[in-house]
Amino acid sequence: MSSPPLSLLTRDSGLLWHPYATLDAGAHYAVAAARGVRLSLTDEAGTHEVIDGMSSWWSMVHGYRHPVLDAAAHEQIDTFSHVMFGGLTHSPAVELAERLVAMAPGDLQHVFLADSGSISVEVALKLALQYQHARGHGTRQRFLALRGGYHGDTFAAMGVCDPVDGMHAAFAPLGREQVFLPRPPAARLTAEGQWESDATELAAWEAAARNMAATHAPELAGIICEPILQGAGGMYVYAPRALRILREIADEHDLLLIVDEIATGFGRTGTLFATEWAQVQPDIMCVGKALTGGYLSLAAMLCTAEVAGALGDAGEALLHGPTFMGNPLACAVANASLELLTGGGDPRSSSAPWRVQVSALESGLREALAPARALSCVKEVRVLGGVGVIQLSEPVRVAELSQAAVRRGAWVRPFRDLVYVMPPYIASAGDLSVLGAALVAAVGQVHGD
C-alpha cells in the first residue's frame, strides 16, 4: 500500500528559505487560491478564507485576479513576453516611462527600469556617484542616510540601511561606511489632516542634521531617505518639515536628494507620492512594489534632466543593465495598473480612483483599529493613508498572533513590536471592519488586554 502524498507544507520545510527566516522555519500556510482581497489558505487544520491585510507586502493594491490586469498580461503574452532591452525598445516600456514622468513630482524626466526595488536603489546610488564624478567631485563617495531606514537587501542598498537596528549588521565589514543622521522626531497626521510633532525635538534634530551634513559634505554624494514613512524600520512616521530640511541641506551642500518611494509611492500614504506631503522635489526617485499592482517584479528609478545631463556631458553611460530590464510583460501590466489608479485622468485630482480609495481606507482603518487603544498591551495606534499600525509595548509573538488572526479571517505578518496592515485599495468598509476586529481580538488574545 502506497504512502499518502506529503503535504505542500511538509515538502516546503527544509527545502525553501523564506524571507528573514531560518531554513527550518518553513511556512505556516499554503495558498490555494486568491481573488479580490481574499486568500484561501490551507494547513493541517483545513482551509481558511482570509482578508489579505498585507497586500502581499504592499504591492497588490488592486487585489488578486483583477480582470483588467489579467487581460493586460494575457494580451502581452500573446504578443511577446520578453526581449532584451540592449539596443531594442518596445511600446510597453516607452508608454510606462511616459506615464511615470507625467505622474512624478517635480522635474523627473528620465527613467531607468529595474528588476526590483532594491536594484532601483542600487542604480540610484550608482547614478549619484557617477554624477559627482562627472562634475569633478570624485571624492564624494558616501551617502547621508537616516537611522531607521530600509532600502533593500542588496549590498549598496544594505549600506544605507540602519547599521545597528536594521537587518544587515552582519554584513557591515563588506560595505562602505555611510553617514547616518538620527531619525527625525515622530509625527502624526490627525483625522482633520493636520500634522503634529514636537517643535523642540524637531529643532534639535535639524541642528544636528545640519551640523553633521556640514562636517561630512566634502565626501558626500547625496542624501537618501524614505519620505515621511519608514517602513521596515518600524512603520515610523515623521513630519514633512524634516523632509524639507533634508532638501535644504542637499541644496546647501550640492548633494543629490534620493527619495525611496518603493513602499510609499502610488498613493499609499494619502498623497500620490509621499514626497508631496512636504512639497519637495527630489533629484532621484525610486518606485516599485505597487507599480505592477503586485503581478510581477518591476521597479524604476527616475531622475532630473540636470542629473542625467551631467553624465551625458561627460560621455558616461549609466553602468547598470539587468537581463530583464524593461520586461514587456511587467511593463504592460504596470501600464494597466497605473491606468486603474488614475482612471485615465489627472492622478492628483480629488476624484482620481486611488485618492478616493485611499481616503476610504484611512477613515475605515481609523475606525476599525480604534478599539485596540483600550488594550493594556498597546502602546499606540496610528494611521496614515492606507497604512494602519497597532504598536505594542512588547515584541510581538509573530507566529501566535498570525495564527490567531487567521482564525478570525485576516492575514497579517507582524514584526518587531508592530501589528500593521496595508490592505488592497479595493478593500470595502466591511472588509476593513473584519480586518480590524480580527487584529484587535488577536492582539488581546495573544498579548493580553
From TrEMBL:
PROSITE patterns: AA_TRANSFER_CLASS_3. It is an enzyme of class 2 (transferase). Keywords: Aminotransferase, Biotin biosynthesis, Cytoplasm, Pyridoxal phosphate, S-adenosyl-L-methionine, Transferase. Substrate binds at W57, Y150, K289, G321, R413. The keyword S-adenosyl-L-methionine applies. SUPFAM superfamilies: PLP-dependent transferases. Pathway: Cofactor biosynthesis; biotin biosynthesis; 7,8-diaminononanoate from 8-amino-7-oxononanoate (SAM route): step 1/1. The keyword Cell wall biogenesis/degradation does not apply. The modification N6-(pyridoxal phosphate)lysine is found at K289. Transmembrane segments: none annotated. Its EC number is 2.6.1.62. The record marks Y20 as: Participates in the substrate recognition with KAPA and in a stacking interaction with the adenine ring of SAM. Pyridoxal 5'-phosphate binds at G117, S118, D260, P322, T323. Its cofactor is pyridoxal 5'-phosphate. It catalyses: (8S)-8-amino-7-oxononanoate + S-adenosyl-L-methionine = S-adenosyl-4-methylsulfanyl-2-oxobutanoate + (7R,8S)-7,8-diammoniononanoate. Pfam families: Aminotran_3. One of its GO terms (molecular function) is adenosylmethionine-8-amino-7-oxononanoate transaminase activity. Homodimer. Belongs to the class-III pyridoxal-phosphate-dependent aminotransferase family. BioA subfamily. HAMAP family: BioA. Catalyzes the transfer of the alpha-amino group from S-adenosyl-L-methionine (SAM) to 7-keto-8-aminopelargonic acid (KAPA) to form 7,8-diaminopelargonic acid (DAPA). It is the only aminotransferase known to utilize SAM as an amino donor. This is Adenosylmethionine-8-amino-7-oxononanoate aminotransferase. It comes from Paeniglutamicibacter terrestris. The gene is bioA.
